[in-house]
UniProtKB/TrEMBL annotation:
Lineage start: Eukaryota, Viridiplantae, Streptophyta, Embryophyta, Tracheophyta
GO molecular function: acid-amino acid ligase activity
PANTHER family: BNAC09G31070D PROTEIN, GH3 DOMAIN-CONTAINING PROTEIN
Protein name: Uncharacterized protein
Pfam families to which the protein is assigned, alphabetical: GH3
GO cellular component: cytoplasm
Length: 219
């Protein structure tokens, strides 16, 4: 912590160059997002990471915007995704421990002025090396489907893969309930086309993920 304190410009106004932990606890106030927002925006617009962080910032994440009706920007580095992978792995362990068979089945990004990518936290995780190098794959869809930049195409192919492998699906989950509702609504509007594609899979005796990838490439 001491090494980081020396670097962060934000803390200099409170610690005056000191690295004392007790002074940190006494002088640095509990803040809201609005208090640190100007520092985050400075990094977004091209200033060095040490304005707000003791380690290099590699990406910005966007909140859902449900709290104040406007998305917030959060700076992160690669360690964040390593920790996120650990939390997901821990959650998978708890599910497999308490729900028999729970894990045996298959279960938009832009650039800131400083050149670093910005996205939602889930998109950031899907694009990270931690996700690409995960030890196991418990999803019905291949990565190419999850990473499709067109949300409608991705949703169509993701649901198609899930329906084709329905015998292997043991749980459906999402970070937000609204995402599940969106998937259900999408299915209600596109089920006829999906049925035709499922027939194509059966006739070709092929892989549903291969058919989904073909649809992505030809649409």
């Amino acid at each position: 912590m001491h090494a980081d304190i020396k670097i962060k410009q934000y803390l200099r106004g409170y610690l005056h160059g000191s690295c004392d932990k007790e002074l940190f606890k006494k002088n640095v106030p509990v803040v809201s997002y609005d208090d640190v927002k100007p520092y985050i925006e400075r990094v977004v617009n091209g200033e060095p990471s040490n304005v707000i962080s003791g380690k290099p910032i590699t990406r910005f994440l966007l909140s859902s915007g449900t709290t104040a009706g406007k998305q917030k920007i959060f700076p992160v580095n690669n360690k964040f995704f390593e920790d996120m992978s650990f939390v997901i792995a821990l959650g998978s362990f708890l599910i497999s421990k308490h729900f028999e068979g729970g894990l045996k089945g298959k279960a938009v990004i832009s650039t800131t002025p400083c050149g670093l990518p910005i996205s939602t936290s889930i998109t950031g995780y899907l694009l990270s090396d931690s996700f690409k190098n995960r030890p196991s794959n418990g999803f019905t869809s291949q990565d190419v489907v999850a990473l499709c930049p067109d949300n409608k195409q991705a949703m169509y192919c993701h649901l198609l893969c899930g329906l084709c492998l329905s015998d292997e699906v043991v749980n459906v989950s999402a970070t937000f309930a609204s995402s599940l509702l969106g998937a259900i609504t999408f299915l209600e509007s596109h089920w006829k086309g999906m049925c035709s594609n499922i027939d194509l899979v059966i006739l070709a005796s092929g892989s549903p993920t291969l058919v989904a990838e073909t649809l992505l490439l030809t649409s």
